[in-house]
Every structure is written in structure tokens, then in C-alpha cells.
Amino acid sequence: MKHVFFLLLLLPAACHAPLPGRWEDLPPRAFDPPPYARFLRGLTICLDPGHGGHADRKGYKRGPTGFREAVMNWRVARFLQGFLEKAGAKVVLTRHGDEAVTLQRRSRIALEAGADIFLSLHHNAINGKPSVNYTTIWYHAGPDYSPAGLDAARCLFFGITHELRLSQVAEVPLHSDYLMYPGSGFGVLRHIRGKIPAVLCESSFFTNPAEEKRLKDPAYNEREAWGIFLGLARWALGGFPSARILGRGPHGPSEILRVRLLSGLEKRKSWALKSPLILASSIQPFLDGKRLERWTFEAEKGLLLLTPPKEGWSPGRHTLRVEFMNIFKNSPPRPTLTWTCRPAS
Ligand SMILES: [Zn+2]
User: Fold this and answer.
1) What separation in Å is there between the alpha carbon of 48 and the centre of ligand 1?
2) Separation of 136 CA from ligand 1 center, angstroms?
3) Ligand 1 centroid to residue 51 C-alpha, Å
4) CA distance 279 to 244
5) Sorting pLDDT into bands at 50, 70 and 90, what band is 342?
6) Residue 71 CA, ligand 1 centroid: distance in Å
7) Distance from Cα 159 to the centre of ligand 1, integer Å
8) Which of 103, 186, 229, 336 is most buried, by CB atoms within 10 Å?
9) What's the pLDDT band for 16 if we cut at 50, 70, 90?
10) Average pLDDT of 148-159?
11) Would you state the pLDDT for residue 19?
């Protein structure tokens, strides 16, 4: 007992590794993947290093000493690719060097690859305000357009801002691209058409002279990639909810459409699986773009019973979008399903 007491006295001193005095001081690099990085395994991640080509354009997307944004974006993408592949994710790049690729083409590459997320990598600029330097993450249109995109954006923000140790913080760091281009937003995000989560990271400002200097250092680019990697891993840890149409029935005066809601956590090993994993209060079904008012949810079976209005039963193709959240508050990355209603025989 005496020995234990003596050890406890010593413990605080032994645990106190010297801490940096200021938040901005970068801690030593340590790229040890946290255990939750394994939830990235099997995902397909489309990395879109912003810009490229146009190296001859004077002053185009350059820092105060001329360092090009296209280069910093590319370096971050390549480091990130390495981290993700090591964690078992598949990476698709939208460019393969210093080349110009259209915005539409970049989005198409992500969709054709069946990517689980489209991540556009950029660094920010502001004219006449060289002191500005913070992280913002951009999503398309309004917050209800792609709730899953916001899930990823939130995790990415914390991953990047923590790793870069910027001294400034945007007080609302998640930005709609309609702030920049009202009604249209960024081409790369718009062309994804809400089919998968799509976000654009403006990790820091290359128009800030001190930040440009840091961005020139590949070790700093790697650190940023690590922050993004951690953000993606945290998002993946929360699981990806999904919905599956089981079918129509039973026949009766008010027909119902049966839909299974999955939390994305079912296959995990956890005592928590004994509790409901879906927030019933978050369920919002839309049939052909219209919100359905009549539905019930059987939580223990994860069964959503929809009673669509008459036009919802018209023969042909319908779209069903079910927004909901699991207990991690992650929303379905692919909330829209199609369903063909066959005429009653
Ligand atoms: Zn850019």
C-alpha cells in the first residue's frame, strides 16, 4: 500500500510531457492511426485536388511569394491518398498531375467510381486582408440538401483545424456555397447532384504570408492530410445509415409501403445494439419530392410503414427519399431510392 501511495505521488510528474506554450506551436508529428481508422476500410473516397494546369498564368491562385494553390492541393491529396489506402480505403483522384480538369468532369469521376464521398481540397484567398487565416468547410445549397454532407463537414473541420493549429477560428466554419454564388454554388459540388456527400475544404489562407510559408513545407501538407484523414475516420466511425424498400402491402383500404431503416451500426459488436440505434424523431420520408405525413415506425424492427397519397401509387417510377439519423447523428449518404410501382393486376 505504501508503495502504491509513493507511485501515485510520482505519477503526475511522470505524465507531464512538456506541453507547447502556445496553441499555434505545432506538436511533434505522430501519424499513428487511431483504432477507429479501421472504419474507413472498404470505402471509396474521391479526392479532388483543386485547380491544376495554368502554371503560366501570372498571379493565378498564388500566395504572396508565388506559391501555387494547385501545388499545395495536390500535395495534400497525395499524402491523404497514402493515409487512406493504408487504412484500407480505395482512393480515386480527379487529376493525376498538374493538369486542368473541368469541374463537371471532376464530379463525374466521383459518381462513375461509385465513391462514398467527394472531397474537394482547396486553400483560401482573400484580397487586401493578409492577416486572415482560418479553416472553412463548404457544402452545397442549404443545410437540408445533403445532411450527410454536413456530417462529414463537421468532422473534417475539427480534424483539419486541430491538426493545423491555426490561431484563428471561423465562428461558423460550415459555409453554404450559395454564400459565394447565390442559387448555383460551386460547380464541383453542384454537379454531384446530391447523390453522395460532397464537401469542399478551404483548409487555410495562402494569402496569409506566414501561412504560405508553412504551406510550402511538405511536412506541413502532410500534417493537413492527416487532419483530413482523422476527420474522415471520425465520420466513418459514426456508421452510414441506409434505407431499403421491402415492398408494398398488405392489401387493404389504405395500402402501405414497407421500408427497412438501417442504422449502419448493426454489424458492429456492441452492447449498445440492444438499444434503438435510430432517432425516431429524425425520420422524414419524401415521395417524389413531397413530404409524407402519414407513416409509422416500428423501432424494434427498424420498419417504416408509409401510407402514400393516391398519386404515390400511380404506375411507374417513383423516388423515395428517407432522411433520418442514427445515434451518432449520422444521416444516410445515399438517402434517395427509386421504386417502380406496378399496376395492380
Ligand atoms: Zn481553390
Assistant:
1) 11
2) 12
3) 6
4) 17
5) confident
6) 11
7) 19
8) 229
9) low
10) 98
11) 62
69 CA distance to ligand 1 middle (Å): 7
The Å distance, Cα 8 to ligand 1 centre, comes to 52
pLDDT computed for residue 341 by the predictor? 84
Q: For residue 325, report the distance from its CA to the centre of ligand 1, in Å.
A: 32
CA–CA separation, 69 and 55 (whole Å): 10
Place of cell 424498400: 245
Q: Nearest CA to 306 among 254, 253, 343?
A: 254
Q: What is the distance of C-alpha 328 from the center of its chain?
A: 14
User: What distance in angstroms lies between residue 65's CA and the mean position of ligand 1's atoms?
Assistant: 17
**Domains parsed from the chain with CATH numbers:** 35-237 (3.40.630.40), 242-341 (2.60.40)
| pLDDT tens for each residue of 285-338 | 999 999 999 999 999 999 999 998 888 888 899 999 999 999 999 999 999 999
250: preceding bond cis by omega (within 30 degrees): yes
- What would the pLDDT profile of 206-251 be if each residue is shown by its tens digit? 999 999 999 999 999 999 999 999 999 999 999 999 999 998 877 6
SS3 230: helix
Tell me the three cell numbers of residue 268: 458492429
Q: How far away, in angstroms, is 310 Cα from ligand 1 center?
A: 48
The answer for residues whose C-beta is within 8 angstroms of residue 107's C-beta and 6 or more apart is 118, 187, 188, 189, 190, 191, 192, 198
